[in-house]
Amino acid sequence: MREWLQDPATRSRLRGSLFAGAIGDALGAKTEFDSIDRIREIAGPAGITDLIPAYGGVGRITDDTQMTLFTLEGLIRAHAAARREQGTFTTAATTPVEQSLQQAYQRWLHTQGIPWERARGPKDASAEPDGWLITNRELFSRRAPGLTCFGELEAYGRTGVRVGMDRPVNNSKGCGGIMRAAPVALWSDDLAEVFRLGAESAALTHGHPSGYLSSGAFAVIVRELLVGKPLLDAVATARTELEKYRGHEEQSVALDQALALSREGAPTPEKLETLGQGNIGETALSMSVYVALTTTDANAALLASVNHSGDSDSTGSICGNLVGAMYGEEALNTDWLAKLELAEVIGRLADDALAEFGGSAPGDDRWYARYPAH
Which of 70, 209, 267, 322 has a CA 20 to 30 Å removed from the CA of 181? Predict the structure, then answer.
């Protein structure tokens, strides 16, 4: 049993991380890649200060949160399958966790309008997708999915060939890998394994080192925040793991730039944009870390993370995962939480993850039907 997962503070941090990530996603959904001047025209001279309508409503999430939820579901299913096979969890499961994540993303692809027989991949003969998460019909909505994620998952649906760091699928370093990686923080108490799986989870769709090593570093940072470590210490720990990998230099430099900029005081859109647009792995992480370091509460950080001319929903989501883990669920704006799409699903999935990884999950058929293998 992993005792830190039994701590009520951990529950608050995990739920906070998932909720704040979704809120940041929703805050930036309307203005993704709009210039800061255009944002100020839309939202007022102070920029975004509240949720604004997107995708037909207020508080609507994008593909960033959708894929984060499927990541967490895939991890729960992998862990539950190993526990059922062995009687207790072991990493030596029949089905690798990477394959469970692959299948989770294929289920997400199905929610984006791709028929199951095309989305599932040739190794899966099921007539329809299983498990609890995909029964939530609100997920069946296309929210500007990244072309790289979409295309590579469609390719897997045709070929059934799973790729990874040792077999790169492309040369993309887009942020589609890191934006979904926060739940990997739960997978292990071995930080090297958390980093490896975070990177491999992104490498399923993004083949450039900056596209997947950013995800490994992010997963380690979130994990350290969940156990109560300060952000600077968490970043330093992630840097130690990052530098073990070939091709780490771009992400290492980007983090150095974020740390240096953080010493210049409170964030502004203009300062934030000197780090990049947040549409690639290394800048998405560096921008999010910068904002988290230079704000003193979760809600201010969420607003600062989306007020810039780049990929605002992704930086909002990633920064939200960080500050939610830092400050906990109780620190979040209750009005935003009340308006957040899929809030009940997010909370239930977080609690189920704590049960599964914390050793208190049931061992009955109902649980394994909720989180079946693969």
Answer: 267
